Automatic annotation (TrEMBL):
GO terms for cellular component: plasma membrane. GO terms for molecular function: antimonite transmembrane transporter activity; antiporter activity; arsenite transmembrane transporter activity. Its main location: membrane. Keywords: Cell membrane, Membrane, Transmembrane, Transmembrane helix, Transport. Belongs to the arsenical resistance-3 (ACR3) (TC 2.A.59) family. It is a multi-pass membrane protein. Coiled coil: none annotated. The chain crosses the membrane at residues 35-53, 65-89, 95-114, 126-146, 158-177, 197-216, 228-249, 289-308. InterPro entries: Arsenical-R_Acr3, BilAc:Na_symport/Acr3, Na+/solute_symporter_sf. It comes from Nocardiopsis flavescens. This is Arsenite efflux pump ArsB, ACR3 family. It is found in: Cell membrane.
Length: 324
């Protein structure tokens, strides 16, 4: 795992602090507002252009893992997110919506890295990626409207338009770019130049969006710093419950070690960049929702790094040495 990815939590925190300083000391807030959403849309396009939908067929080789993953991600997790928000953030509607947006969006990028680090089945993990993306695209408005309740205070059309903008537009752009580069450059050159450039752009664009977000909303963050700290308890509860559920079900169903790793990472990692982009688009007048989402990666990435060590699959045994 590259050093830049290992230090992602640190860089997100530094970007947030730099944005806060800029927003409090300089009159950059109005300009920064216009940077956040474009940076996130470009980042998502760069993520999606690297996605190989041809690997979806690999899910057929692990039907049990896929079924459990979908049940945990799209049935159990939304119910848990609602319970944590109602129980621990009942008086903070914007934080409740921020928590809900974060927890109901399964990861579509960095969980692959941690799966590989822990010797999980990367083929199945990659095959789950487009499945998770399509399902969250369809279900996210339903979750927010049904589970958000009065805290959501957004109509279905506005939310659907935001999801369309944030997920469908980058996905279509990525598919067109992938098709064009395959046609005119060939698969090998596409992987080298297009996929390579896209992978190098993702993190700088994320840091740019975070920096601009905090510069834009510096005074909101300062006024609600204690409220943001209240998110740590529900986030900690989530990042304990989901790995335990995944490991327990893996043992109950006797999944192979590499599939246990894959399941654990696929249901623990969250899609904070997508959730952040949707929050900015759907709730432009409630900035605390978007700001709350930046707290997620600061907790999540260290947890995933720790999990990669705790659930690491044993190294394959070397085969017998041929005689002769």
């Amino acid at each position: 795992m590259p050093l830049a990815e290992r230090l992602q939590s640190l860089f997100v925190a530094l970007a947030a602090l730099a944005g806060l300083a800029a927003g409090l000391l300089l009159p950059v807030g109005p300009a920064a507002e216009h940077v956040v959403l474009p940076a996130l849309l470009l980042m998502l396009t760069a993520v999606f252009v690297q996605m190989d939908t041809a690997r979806v067929g690999e899910v057929r080789r692990a039907k049990t893992l896929v079924a459990v993953s979908l049940a945990l991600n799209f049935v159990f997790t939304p119910a848990l997110a609602w319970a944590l928000g109602a129980g621990l953030l009942g008086g903070e509607p914007d934080l409740r919506i921020g928590l809900l947006l974060l927890l109901v969006t399964p990861c579509t990028d960095w969980y692959l890295v941690f799966t590989a680090m822990a010797r999980g089945h990367t083929g199945i993990a990659a095959a789950l990626l487009p499945v998770n993306l399509i399902l969250q695209l369809l279900l996210l408005p339903v979750y927010v409207l049904l589970l958000g309740g009065r805290a959501a205070m957004v109509d279905g059309a506005t939310l659907a338009e935001s999801v369309l903008l944030v997920l469908v537009v980058p996905l279509v752009l990525a598919l067109v770019l992938r098709w064009a580069s395959n046609r005119f450059m060939g698969a090998r050159l596409r992987e080298r130049y297009v996929d390579g450039a896209a992978s190098r752009l993702v993190l700088p664009l994320l840091y740019t969006a975070v920096l601009a977000m905090f510069a834009w909303q510096a005074r909101t963050v300062l006024a609600h710093l204690g409220d943001l700290l209240a998110l740590l308890l529900p986030l900690a509860a989530f990042f304990v419950v989901l790995p335990l559920a995944a490991v327990g079900l893996s043992r109950l169903l006797r999944l192979p070690d590499d599939q246990k790793v894959t399941l654990t990472m696929a249901v623990t990692a969250r899609n904070s960049p997508i959730a952040l982009a949707i929050a900015v688009a759907a709730f432009p007048d409630r900035p605390l929702i978007a700001v709350a989402l930046v707290v997620g990666p600061l907790v999540e990435l260290p947890v995933l790094a720790l999990l990669a060590q705790l659930v690491r699959a044993p190294a394959p045994r070397p085969g017998p040495v041929p005689r002769g």
